[in-house]
Amino acid sequence: MPTVIGKHLIADFCGAARQTDLKSIEFALRAAAEHAGATVLRVVAHEFSENNGITGVAVLAESHISVHSWPEHDYIAFDIFMCGKADPHLALQWLEDFFKPAKSTNQLIERIAPA
Amino acid sequence: MPTVIGKHLIADFCGAARQTDLKSIEFALRAAAEHAGATVLRVVAHEFSENNGITGVAVLAESHISVHSWPEHDYIAFDIFMCGKADPHLALQWLEDFFKPAKSTNQLIERIAPA
C-alpha cells in the first residue's frame, strides 16, 4: 500500500458571510489551522479592489490552507492540505462555523507519491 | 450548467531533482506561474531544517501554486489553481521540465460554486 503523505480537503462554499472581509479571512486562516492542530508559519492575504475578492494562504508546518473568494459568484474556494497529526476536517468545521455558508461541499484527496 | 470558476491541477511527483533546493523552488513557483500567463503577487517559501523538506506558495492574481516536498518520501506535491485565462497545464509542463520527476501524476478539479 502506498503511504498517504497528506490529507487534502477541497471545500467550496456559496452564500457565505464575510467573503469580502480581509481581516476576518486572515483571522480565519490562522484560527482554523490552529483548531486543526497545525502550526502557522505565515499568513499572506490580498484584496482585489476591482471586485472585492480576496485571496489568501496560511503557510503551515503541515502544508497549507488557501482561500479565494469571488463575491461576484457568491463563492469561496478553500484548500486545506495537512500532513502529520493535524486534522483538516477540524479546520473545515471551524471555517463552516465562521463563514456560515448556505451551501458547502467538499472532497478529500489523499496525497501519495506516484508509484 | 454551473460556471467553472477555477481550474485546479493536483500534481504529484516522485524521483524529482531539486526537491530540497529552496532557491530553485522559489524560482520555479514564479517562472511556472508566468509561463501559464498568471500574475505573481507574492512568493513565500520555507525550508524545514529537520528533514530538508520545503513548503512554498506563489500567491497569484489568478489564485495560487503551492509546493510541498518530503525528501524522506522522495515526493513533491503541487497544487496549481488558476482562474481566468491562465492555463495550469502550462505551469505543470514547466514544472515537469524543471524538476524532471521519474514519475508524475495529476488530476484536474474544476472548481465550481455548490448549487
Please describe the structure with a list of short key phrases separated by commas or semicolons:
homodimer; alpha+beta; S-adenosylmethionine decarboxylase; 6-stranded antiparallel β-sheet; 23% helix; globular
Please characterize this protein's 3D structure.
The structure is a homodimer of 115-residue chains. Chain A is α+β, with helices and mostly antiparallel strands and 115 residues long. Chain A has a single domain, classed as S-adenosylmethionine decarboxylase, CATH 3.60.90.10. Helices cover 23% and strands 46% of the residues of chain A. In chain A, strands 2-3-4-5-1-6 form a 6-stranded antiparallel sheet, with helices on one face. In chain A, β3 and β4 form a beta hairpin. In chain A, α1 runs antiparallel to α2. The longest helix of chain A has 14 residues. The radius of gyration of chain A is 14 Å and the shape is globular. The termini of chain A are close together. The model of chain A has no long low-confidence stretch (mean pLDDT 96).
